[in-house]
Amino acid sequence: LQALYHPSSCRVTYRTPNAKEPNIFRVEPYELIECDGGLYLYCNVPRHGDVIVLAVERIEAVSRNLDEFRRSPEVEAKIQGKKKRAFRIFDDEELLDVTLKFTPQAAFYAAERKWHPSQTEQPHRDGSVTLRFQASGRIEIERWIRGWGDECQVVGMEEVAGKGKPVDTKSRSQPKQ
Fold it and tell me: Could you tell me where the DSSP H helices lie in the chain?
């Protein structure tokens, strides 16, 4: 937290979920946020010139360096871009065009909340609703969809601008008939 308030770089020891050994690297911390009960740190990695998001619970050790840094408007813009694209927290830089149809039983709950700023809703006569949005974070989006069970049908989920393959929608839940 001190490194956030008085911008200075940190040396972090970070273990990704499947890693046998942790990674040790230098970061410039920019922003700490909460999402779905977890804490996440947006930071710049000077060695790579990239912005990453670290799950705080995966940081095994952290030490504040003595070198201060000046917050960069370019890094701030990268962070805002990542936050704008991400469905929740993680921006995998793969923007997906998502179209989902919710059953009449789930329509109210699905449409009552803005899940993503780009979201639009289209109600249907039978009480169902179609939600559309463009966001990145495929794993988070797919996990969220599976959480709706049989109440949600994936109508379409493809990468924007044709950059990749369409998502396999056959394995997704279908609405009850």
Answer: 2-5, 73-85, 104-111, 138-147
Q: Look at residues 130, 175, 120, 137 and name the one whose alpha carbon lies nearest to residue 156.
A: 130
pLDDT greater than 60 at residue 172: no
Task: For 161, list phi and psi in degrees, rounded to 5.
Answer: 70, 20
Looking up tokens 């694209």 gives 85
Are β-strands 96-102 and 129-135 bridged in parallel, bridged antiparallel, or unpaired?
A: antiparallel
Q: What is the pLDDT of residue 150?
A: 97
SS3 assignment for 52-76: EEEEHHHEEEEEEEEEECCCCHHHH
Q: What is the pLDDT of residues 25-60, one digit of tens each?
A: 999 999 999 998 999 999 999 998 899 999 999 999
Neighbours of 89 (CB within 10 A): 18
Find tokens 């050994």 and name the residue: 21
Residue type, 108: F
